[in-house]
């Protein structure tokens, strides 16, 4: 009885910040709706990135600033999975760990948050010398390159802390650059003065998406997460992470991306733009690539597969199936049907060859293969990011990144 009770308890790891807890509780609520028999226990903790606030992120000189403590808990089996902002996760994860699911992505763009007494409506309108706060090298480089008249200063802390600094009359900040998704999740969308288009500010790899990290051999958790592993988000994220992994970047270099997935007449087209900047923004290396592929989703496979006597639809049951109208611009073109995935998982596995089933065991840039996406599509997304990075490398991206990284290392040594 005791073992049975424990098997129903799922321990969920999270950072202690308000935003992290909101995101983690969102994931728990989604899982509770599908697994009402499970009890989800939240285990919160601080990470190195939370504890060290008087040093800019690149100068701390450590990887996995916001994830290592949570990953240690996974390794120690004190939690069953952890919820991350995906942009915080390195493209290579510790052995034995993997991203089991990426939830549907929020708006990945950056947002301009102006101090409330400032009447400007955009970065262009700000007076020369106005101070912009950000903790990101990516944002800093793009700001300096496009708006050299502005002054960029590092600002650390969670969203609450940074907004308080902006609102404090004793500080010099005129505006902050923040991820719009975080502001939306905190209920502070009213603070957004302007969403920055990707032509002005490419966003961070994975920005706007939530990642669920777990032990890579935890079949129970992986099956539980599968219905929430959002196909469109997964395809875009994989291309972005493959791009960053090939470059070898992270928070130690100004690297940005922009991705888009759209449905054509009969196919789907994934577009990715990637950029690398010098720290002063004077040098920019960027390129855009596209990949077109047929997307055969699980619903189509089930509809076209001859029914067999064990099919749930043959026994007179009244299972409800939600049909997605992809003509609605608010609906993602690769959105899968959770009901289908949950109830017909066994049927879907029968449709796969032995090679496909074996390929689904692979890990791509820390991501477990998404069972809701054909294996050949997963591979093409991975290849697309890698090809884009190699094009930028041919243009000299690594040399540009090395200069920035050397500057950061020298500043760490001096401090």
TrEMBL record:
Its EC number is 2.5.1.61. Residues 236-291 form the Porphobilinogen deaminase C-terminal domain. Keywords: Porphyrin biosynthesis, Transferase. InterPro entries: HemC, Porphobilin_deaminase_cofac_BS, Porphobilin_deaminase_N, Porphobilinogen_deaminase_C, Porphobilinogen_deaminase_C_sf. GO terms for biological process: protoporphyrinogen IX biosynthetic process. One of its GO terms (molecular function) is hydroxymethylbilane synthase activity. PROSITE patterns: PORPHOBILINOGEN_DEAM. Residues 10-222 form the Porphobilinogen deaminase N-terminal domain. GO terms for cellular component: cytoplasm. Transmembrane segments: none annotated. Its cofactor is dipyrromethane. Pathway: Porphyrin-containing compound metabolism; protoporphyrin-IX biosynthesis; coproporphyrinogen-III from 5-aminolevulinate: step 2/4. Belongs to the HMBS family. NCBIfam families: hemC. This is hydroxymethylbilane synthase. It comes from Pieris macdunnoughi.
């Amino acid at each position: 009885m005791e073992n049975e009770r424990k098997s129903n308890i799922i321990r969920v790891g999270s950072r202690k910040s308000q935003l992290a807890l909101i995101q983690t509780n969102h994931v728990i609520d989604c899982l509770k709706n599908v697994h009402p028999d499970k009890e989800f226990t939240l285990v919160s903790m601080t990470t190195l990135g939370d504890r060290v606030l008087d040093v800019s992120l690149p100068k701390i000189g450590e990887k996995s600033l916001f994830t290592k403590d949570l990953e240690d808990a996974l390794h120690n089996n004190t939690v069953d999975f952890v919820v991350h902002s995906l942009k915080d996760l390195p493209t290579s994860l510790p052995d034995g760990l993997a991203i089991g699911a990426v939830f549907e992505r929020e708006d990945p763009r950056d947002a301009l948050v102006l101090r409330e007494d400032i009447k400007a409506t955009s970065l262009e309108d700000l007076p020369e010398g106005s101070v912009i706060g950000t903790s990101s090298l990516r944002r800093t480089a793009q700001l300096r390159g496009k708006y050299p008249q502005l002054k960029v200063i590092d600002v650390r802390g969670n969203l609450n802390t940074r907004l308080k600094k902006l609102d404090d009359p004793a500080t010099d900040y005129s505006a902050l650059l923040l991820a719009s998704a975080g502001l939306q999740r905190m209920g502070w969308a009213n603070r957004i003065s302007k969403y920055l288009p990707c032509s002005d500010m490419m966003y961070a790899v994975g920005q706007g998406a939530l990642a669920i990290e777990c032990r890579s051999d935890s079949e129970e958790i992986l099956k539980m997460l599968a219905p929430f592993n959002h196909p469109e988000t997964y395809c875009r994220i994989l291309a972005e992470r493959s791009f960053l992994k090939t470059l070898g970047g992270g928070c130690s270099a100004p690297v940005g991306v922009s991705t888009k997935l759209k449905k054509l007449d009969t196919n789907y087209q994934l577009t990715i733009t990637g950029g690398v900047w010098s720290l002063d923004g004077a040098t920019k290396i960027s390129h855009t690539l596209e990949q077109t592929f047929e997307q055969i989703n699980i619903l189509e496979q089930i509809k076209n597969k001859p029914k067999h006597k064990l099919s749930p639809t043959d026994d007179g049951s009244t299972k409800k199936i939600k049909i997605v109208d992809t003509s609605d611009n608010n609906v993602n073109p690769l959105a899968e049907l959770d009901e289908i995935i949950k109830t017909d998982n066994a049927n879907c596995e029968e449709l796969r060859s032995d090679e496909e089933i074996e390929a689904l065991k692979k890990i791509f840039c820390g991501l477990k293969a998404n069972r809701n996406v054909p294996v050949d599509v997963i591979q093409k997304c991975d290849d697309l990011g890698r090809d884009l990075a190699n094009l930028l490398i041919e243009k000299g991206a690594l040399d540009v990144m090395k200069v920035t990284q050397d500057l950061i290392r020298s500043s760490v040594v001096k401090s």
